[in-house]
Structures are given as C-alpha cells and as structure tokens.
Amino acid sequence: MSKIWFITGSSRGLGRKFAQAALSRGDKVAATARDADSLADLVAAYGDAVLPLTLDVTDKAAVTAAVRRAHEHFGRLDAVVNNAGSGVSGMVEELSEHDVRAQFETDLFGALWVTQAALPYLRAQGSGHLVMVSSMLAHTTTSPTMGAYTASKAAVEGFADALAQEVAAFGIKVTVVEPGPFKTDLAGSVVQAEPLAAYDGLREAVMANLTATPQPAPHGVGPALLKVVDADNPPLRVFFGTLPHQIVPQVYAERLKTWEEWAELSAAAETGQG
Question: Nearest 5 degrees, angle CA 89-CA 93-CA 96?
Fold first, then answer.
C-alpha cells in the first residue's frame, strides 16, 4: 500500500530528494515550497501523485490550511516531514535580532506549526510518522559562526523528545534525522551577519575548515528516509552521512568525562557540602 507524504521545503536540497524517492516507488506526496512553480517538474513527471502547495511555514494559518488541503486531497497522511529550513551565519556578537528570529521562525516554529496541524489527523487514524530534519550541529557546533542555526536545531530536537513520548500511545512515531554536510544549494541561501573586524582571523580559519570538509552529494538520502519510515521500530534519532558518526560520539565522550570530573561539585550544589 502506497504511503501519503507531506514534505515541506520540497523545491530543492534534501526535501527534493525525499519527494523524488517517495514518488519514484509509487507513493503520493503533498509537496510544499514557497513558490509552487518550482515543483512543476515533479508534477510533470508524476502527475496526480503530486499535490503542489505554496507554503511559507512561518505562516501558521497557511500551514494549517495546507495540511488540511493535503488530508482532504489524499484522504490520510502517513509521513509528515519537517524539512523546510533556513540558515544564518555569523559570530554570536554579530547576529542581529531580526536574523535570529527569522532562523527560529522557520526551523523551530515552522516545524511546530506543521506538527500541530498534522497531529489531529494522525491521532484520528491511529498511525503516522513525524520526521524532523535537524542536523548533527544540534549536538555540537563544529565551527563558530553557526550559533543561531545550532540553537534552532537543538530546540527542534528538544520538542521532538517530548513529542515522541506524548504521541506513542496513538500509534504515531517520531524520528529526528541528523544529516552531516551534503552538497546542496542551501549554502547559497544562507544569510550572512554583518561582520565585525575583530573576528576576521577566526572567520578565515572557519572558512578554510569548511572548504576542507568533504560534502558528498545526497544521492542516498531519499532511499535512506524511505527505510526509516518503513521500519516497524524506527529510531528516534538517526544520522545521515558518515561525518556525524566521527564527531558526535567523541563530543559526548568528552562531555561524560567532564561531568564525571565535576561530579563532586555537582553533588555539593545540592547538599551544600564539599
């Protein structure tokens, strides 16, 4: 039986790969983008299996209407993928309030609005899978300048943890996908904060490191997501790519070591002794 998908940010990048993978095996997709014209090639290739929807996920009312339209059109929703995202690059001191709020409006609130709009339908049907596209950076900022992005993804993971516990009894599954770097066109849409000269040296080092970091093409992300959504017992978290496996476990090992080294002080904070 084919699955019905609702995928935000389907015009390019990982979202496009997810939509193509689902459609290529006979599933149906409500694909959203800020400009539905960017989905014309999907409609041309897959016809009625695609429901193209213009959507800015920061508009809560529009999100509710889009999810309702998808459910009315296809009759159910099996996988809801919160993929739409934005990027702000800058040292913490350089970040403007406007840019940080825009980052959170898309990455955090956009995912929240889609999730809230979809849940009544998923609860009613007693099934469904909510997918949050996060990042390995939710666990650690591997380079300066990504503080706003990291914070927004960490916030998504925080509400996903609670959500998974809240909806399990309704037969709804939750997975947070944590990709490493992939070669997509996202970098071209990243907003750059106004630079401060004091950070020029660090900025140059960061850029050199980013240039040296491998960015594989995302050929396998679509089939990988299909396996996650098809699984009887899908993971709450899963890495996409090999770099997260190289970096994140080491980060947690260092944190565990630090917590253990300071355990006596931690206890003293509670007991007042030591």
Answer: 65
